[in-house]
């Protein structure tokens, strides 16, 4: 795994790349990609940072694992490539966007357009073995992505963190709530959404209202 991360992030993350845990993680990922089918493609592992420059960052959405089916994962949490069927969580995200903002349900599940507007779509674990959910957890990725969240909290102000589900909510302790905005709800997965923990959270309109108050451009969700 070559760590090719966008220049705007290098300054705040370079020290992580030099730590022993990251070197072990790199060796693990290289071995996995050499001996198994893994997702996303190597060039897309750090896509969340490529599409969303640190200077432009407005919103952080935290996922858990990349999709582990063929051609799904593109390095952005909850996002799939153009032309790929929308997974259940993404369907529920788009349904909430549609009802919250009165928009049409989109054809493409590719969230690059969100990322380019300053939404960091960050999975806690950035790689996975095909058809084996969670297979790359506890190898060092979480240490790295926790450091990303802490550095954003430290270096930026007025960032909106959307924490969906129990796993993401645990990341609140890494965020300075005096400087930033935290919105929490249930996870968009069918299990949570169908129990009433997701639909109606209005996170998309709430985010845009906060951005307006901050004098920033709203997100075209």
Automatic annotation (TrEMBL):
Reaction(s) the record says it catalyses: Hydrolyzes single-stranded DNA or mismatched double-stranded DNA and polynucleotides, releasing free uracil
Location of the active site: 65
Name the record gives this protein: Uracil-DNA glycosylase
Source species, domain of life: Bacteria
Function summary: Excises uracil residues from the DNA which can arise as a result of misincorporation of dUMP residues by DNA polymerase or due to deamination of cytosine.
Keywords (A to Z) from UniProt: Cytoplasm, DNA damage, DNA repair, Glycosidase, Hydrolase
One GO term of the biological process aspect: base-excision repair, AP site formation via deaminated base removal
Signal peptide boundaries: none
GO (cellular component) term, any one: cytoplasm
EC number of the protein: 3.2.2.27
Compartments, as annotated in UniProt: Cytoplasm
Molecular function (Gene Ontology), one example: uracil DNA N-glycosylase activity
Domain Uracil-DNA glycosylase-like: 50-211
Cross-referenced PANTHER family: URACIL-DNA GLYCOSYLASE (PTHR11264)
Entry-linked Gene3D superfamilies: Uracil-DNA glycosylase-like domain
Gene encoding the protein: ung
InterPro entries: UDG_fam1 (IPR002043), Ura-DNA_Glyclase_AS (IPR018085), Uracil-DNA_glycosylase-like (IPR005122), Uracil-DNA_glycosylase-like_sf (IPR036895)
Family of this protein: Belongs to the uracil-DNA glycosylase (UDG) superfamily. UNG family.
SMART domains: UDG, UreE_C
């Amino acid at each position: 795994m070559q760590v090719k991360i966008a220049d705007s992030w290098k300054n705040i993350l370079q020290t992580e790349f030099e730590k022993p845990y990251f070197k072990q993680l790199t060796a693990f990922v290289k071995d996995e990609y050499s001996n198994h089918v893994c997702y996303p493609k190597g060039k897309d592992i750090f896509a969340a940072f490529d599409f969303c420059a640190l200077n432009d960052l407005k919103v952080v959405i935290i996922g858990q694992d990349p999709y582990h089916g063929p051609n799904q994962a593109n390095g952005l949490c909850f996002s799939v490539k153009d032309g790929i069927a929308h997974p259940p969580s993404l369907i529920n995200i788009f349904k909430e966007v549609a009802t919250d903002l009165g928009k049409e349900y989109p054809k493409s599940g590719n969230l690059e357009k969100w990322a380019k507007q300053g939404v960091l779509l960050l999975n806690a674990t950035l790689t996975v073995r095909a058809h084996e959910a969670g297979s790359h957890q506890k190898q060092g990725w979480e240490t790295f992505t926790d450091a990303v969240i802490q550095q954003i909290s430290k270096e930026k102000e007025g960032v909106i963190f959307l924490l969906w589900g129990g796993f993401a909510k645990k990341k609140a302790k890494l965020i300075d709530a005096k400087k930033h905005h935290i919105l929490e709800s249930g996870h968009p997965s069918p299990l949570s959404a169908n129990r009433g923990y997701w639909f109606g959270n209005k996170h998309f309109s709430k985010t845009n209202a906060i951005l307006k108050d901050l004098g920033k451009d709203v997100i075209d969700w």
